[in-house]
Amino acid sequence: MLQLLADGLIIGSVIALGAIGVTLTYALLRFANFGHGEFLTWGAYLALSALGGFLAMTGATSMSPIEPFSFGWPLLAALGIAAPLTALIALTLDWLLFARLRRHGNAIVLVIASFGAALALRNLLQFFYGAIPEYYSREIQIAIRFVPRDVMGGMRITPDQLFVLALAIVTVCVLHLFLTRTTLGKAMRATAMNPLLARVTGIDVEAVIRLTWIVGAMLGAVAGIFAGLTTQLRPQLGFDLLLPLFAAAILGGIGSVWGAVIGGLIVGLAESLAVPLVGAEYRAAMAFAVIIVILLVKPSGLFAKPRQ
Q1: Closest CA to 194 of 34, 304, 305, 31
Q2: What is the pLDDT of residues 235-252, one digit of tens each?
Q3: Is 136 exposed, middle or buried (0-12, 13-18, 19+ CB in 10 A)?
Q4: pLDDT of amino acid 254
Q5: What band does 270 get if pLDDT is binned at 50, 70 and 90?
Q6: What is the average pLDDT value for the chain, to the nearest integer?
Q7: Cβ contacts of residue 297 below 8 Å, gap of 6+?
């Protein structure tokens, strides 16, 4: 049981980071972006390319890991490059597609367009990188035992998983401070609550929208890199996580950052605890079940923000 809880928290931290981008995009732009999952995939693969570039410049064939992790500083530097590049993809997509469609004010058109954008991005990535799974590192890690086996089955966690969980917590806290303590963050919150009133008060709404794409895409890239670090890279990575991302955003309440975080953890725990009941191959169905339950019981979500 404890092992399932630990695995659920690791999965949930990745889902939470991706769900923040979903909830921010929906709160400001008023449409569900089904292409958001591809930001996770592109971020993960761009980090792989940056990592390969760093290794080529140093003449190394593999990373020198930072004990006790399976990765080294080149992967952290690759993360710093991949996140802005993913944000650039999001801004380009908005400039080419969503900004033009927003002028018509039809959310359904935007949703359908996001489906098409997702398919284009996924196939473009597979064209460049291929369909064979990739890994950041092939170093073998030995899980650390935190709880003895005789206590509820025990609990073992690898150092990489601990790193992912810790950095996810730090990232969410930094985002919270940005949204609550900075002028740009307050402008984003004001625009999400009432874009017309925000424009009247002098807020550059278009700049806020661009900032939202940047923040959401960068968080998505970080989530994709974390997912690839703890499992593997594959072109379907973001697509497989898309339903859990929306389940977490709906569960937490659209527009609530902390709601998305808590929703992500709940969805991750639900998927993990479902493994002994329905099997690992059906764990993704739990996200769908969570969406149905929330829509029936509390459609607005647990921490929904008032909309004007």
Answers
A1: 305
A2: 999 999 998 999 899 888
A3: buried
A4: 81
A5: confident
A6: 87
A7: none
Taking the C-alpha atoms of residue 82 and residue 268, their distance in angstroms, rounded to an integer, is: 25
**Residues 226, 136: contact at Cβ < 8 Å?**
no
Q: Which two tokens stand for residue 130?
A: 């291929």
Closest CA to 231 of 298, 307, 136: 136
DSSP code at position 60? -
Q: Place 118 in a pLDDT band, splitting at 50, 70 and 90.
A: very high
Q: How far apart, in whole angstroms, are the C-alpha atoms of residue 130 and residue 39?
A: 17
**Tokens (6 digits) for 62:** 């593999």
Rounded distance, CA 165 to CA 173, Å?
Answer: 13
Q: Which residues contact 119 (CB under 8 A, 6 or more apart)?
A: none
Q: What is the pTM of this model?
A: 0.91
Compute the distance between CA of residue 188 and CA of residue 200 in angstroms, rounded to an integer: 14
